[in-house]
Write a structure and sequence with these properties.
Length: about 180
């Protein structure tokens, strides 16, 4: 989320036509097209954040700026050239890094929260805890995970929450 994504397409000589067919999971399809005989580009129902990275007659690469979860879906590039027709398909999955917070609850027990991540984050504890995380699914496809530290021993003072996620791992420590 928030980064730029670049999708390449087969680059061939003597291109007649290039078409990006985009089918997002949310919203309607869109197309970006280029016809070499007219040196003309066309776009249908595509947001302004999707465009050719360079001039399509030089390079058929697609760039998505400020990627959002709404950009998830299938992206197919079709190239028509004198050598034949060429296709390349991508299934774009957008990662949303969760926001990690660690605090002490009203009873003095550590609680760790991984807010609004996609896919769902995993939470573990040092020292080990036998807590069962709770998950809250949001309408935009993100998930918040809440874990309360439950100690095997009453002598635990310093605890560390470890968040594991495809967008990056994080950890925080606390004394309650």
């Amino acid at each position: 989320v928030g980064n730029s994504s670049v999708l390449t397409c087969p680059s061939k000589s003597n291109i007649t036509m290039i078409t990006w067919k985009i089918s997002p999971k949310i919203g309607g399809p869109c197309t970006l097209g280029y016809r070499a005989d007219q040196n003309k580009t066309d776009r249908t129902n595509c947001s302004g954040s999707m465009n050719w990275k360079f001039r399509p007659d030089w390079d058929p690469t697609l760039e998505i700026q400020q990627v959002e979860t709404a950009h998830e879906g299938n992206y197919t590039c079709e190239v028509v050239a004198t050598e034949g027709n060429f296709h390349k398909t991508y299934n774009l999955i957008v990662l949303v890094p969760p926001r990690l917070t660690l605090y002490c609850d009203a009873h003095g027990n550590p609680e760790c929260k991984a807010a609004a991540g996609k896919p769902v984050a995993q939470i573990s504890w040092v020292p080990e805890s036998n807590s069962t995380p709770r998950k809250e699914v949001h309408g935009n496809g993100t998930v918040t995970v809440l874990s309360k530290f439950t100690a095997y021993s009453t002598k635990v003072t310093n605890t560390t929450c470890i968040l594991s996620h495809l967008a990056g791992n994080q950890s925080k420590s606390i004394v309650c």
